[in-house]
């Protein structure tokens, strides 16, 4: 591609090179640079990409996009923000892929992975080719790819959308993290539908205040229907009427607003929610009609997730009757309220609750059906929001017979210090601290009696434990199975 033509997409006061420079790829990592690449220098959190410009040139980069002048033998194009420019250039380089498929973005503190998977299920059931980007994986049709971030940076993102378009994906759903919105990773994405789940405490290490965090999530709705995107397809903002932040997002979006909720008036609403042995039933009230719904998923939070997914499908022209039929078939998502079954007499639930609100939701749900003791194994991530530690520990102890505090990806922090932070939140003595997560699981399994429930929270689908710089194999489900089998011997 002609670099001069590509730079034209920046609509910026950019110095365009005098002669054509043919580029065949764009890279932000010098280690990935191939001949004829455009190398983009990004000043990161650990290193500054500008320091790798010379290496990139040695590996064949024919031009550099940077924020400051550099002494290299290829043209250096200067922009104010390379991250912002990268999003625009990536979108153009891969042929504006998000304008060629239906794109549904989901943001909010909890429920993003679950909702994107529920929507994927609905469209797949209609024989539509789908694409999915999120915490667990990237999936194109049935092919899955590993991910490093919930929302990848713009280059990977647009490349992935490009591949989706090539593979005839019709509908793509993606999780949009607040980090991604704040860092402009999704700046080049033309969303058709944006869904808001909820806003509760998390990531205060990054966003510093809840106001900042709320504003970052709001960028998705402000971006929706923005004139930057050329197509005239109708845009929809799907907002949770029971979450106060929605009031702000309603004001900031140019899209059509559809609300969903349980407690407050909303377009799509669930009434008469009842937990049953096999799941949940409720009346789904829509502006068109009301229908009785039966599903296998449990908990009020699951009803919210199903309402959000239903709204996203309805505005994508899926008939309500089809949606309701599929809700009945919905299975849980990997590591979300996932049961570990080795024919033991007690229940073991592995769940990805790693925020105060999600932990409380899960334990409230467990409390509704538990007839005996509840043991909750929980930890808090290192190098992450410290203020949630005592709160989560307190929630675990409040809802459980005994809370077992343990490690969850301590990363660069001292695991004992994280656990000490957690302990400060508990005013009772119904807890133990066991640093080693496998030992913590073993402890709960050895204690559990008939009809007890063990909740193993925080890691869900994760198959690792990050200690220092090491990524060690660890899967709560595998470990729980092993401990149950050993106990049975
Ligand atoms: C704080 C943060 O978001 N960091 C992201 C950032 O890493 P970084 O700023 O440390 O990058 P860096 O290592 O300093 O490198 C700077 C630049 O130099 C380049 N470089 C580096 C080395 C080299 O030899 N050559 C070279 O060119 C790099 O490619 C990069 O362009 O850019 C990386 C590449 O895109 C991301 O993977 C990384 O996410 C890290 C892993 C992370 O943990 N991010 C979290 C906070 C995050 O984004 N989380 C949200 C989800 C949260 C949730 O849903 O709960 C997410 O969307 O994943
Ligand atoms: N609507 C919801 N409200 C509150 N808690 C929820 C909701 N949906 C799921 N949860 C809880 O949050 C946990 C994480 O759910 P999920 O993975 O869908 O969220 P996420 O937003 O994708 O999280 P992440 O930010 O880590 O990607 C679940 O295991 C469950 O405990
Ligand atoms: N996306 C979240 C996941 C947290 C999962 C938990 N297991 C932890 O490591 O804290 C984060 O990176 O903050
Ligand atoms: Mg997720």
UniProtKB/TrEMBL annotation:
Cofactors: Mg(2+)
Residues binding meso-2,6-diaminopimelate: 384, 408-411, 458, 462
Posttranslational mods: Carboxylation is probably crucial for Mg(2+) binding and, consequently, for the gamma-phosphate positioning of ATP.
EC annotation from Swiss-Prot or TrEMBL: 6.3.2.13
Domain Mur ligase central, first and last residues per copy: 106-313
Catalysis performed (reactions): UDP-N-acetyl-alpha-D-muramoyl-L-alanyl-D-glutamate + meso-2,6-diaminopimelate + ATP = UDP-N-acetyl-alpha-D-muramoyl-L-alanyl-gamma-D-glutamyl-meso-2,6-diaminopimelate + ADP + phosphate + H(+)
GO MF annotations, alphabetized: ATP binding; magnesium ion binding; UDP-N-acetylmuramoylalanyl-D-glutamate-2,6-diaminopimelate ligase activity
Presence of keyword Cell wall biogenesis/degradation: yes
Pathway field: Cell wall biogenesis; peptidoglycan biosynthesis
Subcellular location: Cytoplasm
Organism superkingdom: Bacteria
Annotated positions binding ATP: 108-114
Enzyme class label: ligase
Record motif Meso-diaminopimelate recognition motif, residues: 408-411
UniProt main location, coarse: cytoplasm
NCBIfam families: murE (TIGR01085), PRK00139.1-2 (NF001124), PRK00139.1-4 (NF001126)
Family label: Belongs to the MurCDEF family. MurE subfamily.
Protein name: UDP-N-acetylmuramoyl-L-alanyl-D-glutamate--2,6-diaminopimelate ligase
Gene responsible for this protein: murE
């Amino acid at each position: 591609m002609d670099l001069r033509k590509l730079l034209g997409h920046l609509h910026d006061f950019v110095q365009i090179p005098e002669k054509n420079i043919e580029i065949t790829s764009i890279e932000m990592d010098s280690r990935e640079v191939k001949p004829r690449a455009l190398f983009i220098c990004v000043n990161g959190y650990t290193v500054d990409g500008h320091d790798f410009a010379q290496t990139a040139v040695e590996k064949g980069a024919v031009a550099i996009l940077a924020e400051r002048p550099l002494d290299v033998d290829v043209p250096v194009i200067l922009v104010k923000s390379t991250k912002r420019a990268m999003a625009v250039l990536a979108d153009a380089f891969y042929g504006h892929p998000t304008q060629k498929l239906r794109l549904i973005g989901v943001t909010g503190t909890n429920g993003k992975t679950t909702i994107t998977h529920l929507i994927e299920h609905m469209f797949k059931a209609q024989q539509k080719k789908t694409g999915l980007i999120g915490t667990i994986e990237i999936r194109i049709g049935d092919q899955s790819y590993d991910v490093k971030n919930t929302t990848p940076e713009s280059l990977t993102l647009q490349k992935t959308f490009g591949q989706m378009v090539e593979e005839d994906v019709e509908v793509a759903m993606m999780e949009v993290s607040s980090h991604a919105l704040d860092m402009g990773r999704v700046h080049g994405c033309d969303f058709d539908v944006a869904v808001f789940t909820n806003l509760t405490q998390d990531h205060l290490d990054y966003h510093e205040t809840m106001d900042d965090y709320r504003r970052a999530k709001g960028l998705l709705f402000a971006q929706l229907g923005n004139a930057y995107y050329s197509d005239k397809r109708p845009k929809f903002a799907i907002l949770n009427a029971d979450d106060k932040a929605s009031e702000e997002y309603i004001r900031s979006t140019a899209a059509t607003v559809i609300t969903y909720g349980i407690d407050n008036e909303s377009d799509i609403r669930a009434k008469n929610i009842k937990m049953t042995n096999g799941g949940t039933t409720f009346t789904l009230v829509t502006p068109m009609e009301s229908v009785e719904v039966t599903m296998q998923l449990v908990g009020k939070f699951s009803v919210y997730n199903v309402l959000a997914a239903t709204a996203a499908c309805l505005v994508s022209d899926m008939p309500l009757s089809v949606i309701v039929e599929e809700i009945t078939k919905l299975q849980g998502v990997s590591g979300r309220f996932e049961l570990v079954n080795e024919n033991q007499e007690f229940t073991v639930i592995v769940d990805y609750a790693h925020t105060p609100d999600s932990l409380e939701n899960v334990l409230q749900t467990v409390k509704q059906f538990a007839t005996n003791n509840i043991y909750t194994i929980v930890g808090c991530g290192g190098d992450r929001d410290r203020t949630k530690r005592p709160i989560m520990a307190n929630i675990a102890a409040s809802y459980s017979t005994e809370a077992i505090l343990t490690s969850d990806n301590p990363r660069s922090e001292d695991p004992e210090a994280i656990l000490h932070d957690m302990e400060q939140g508990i005013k009772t003595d119904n807890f133990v601290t066991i640093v080693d997560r496998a030992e913590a699981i073993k402890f709960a399994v050895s204690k559990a009696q008939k009809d007890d429930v063990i909740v193993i929270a925080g890691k869900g689908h994760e198959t690792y434990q990050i200690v220092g710089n090491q990524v060690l194999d660890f899967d709560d489900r595998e470990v729980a199975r092993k401990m149950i089998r050993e106990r049975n011997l």
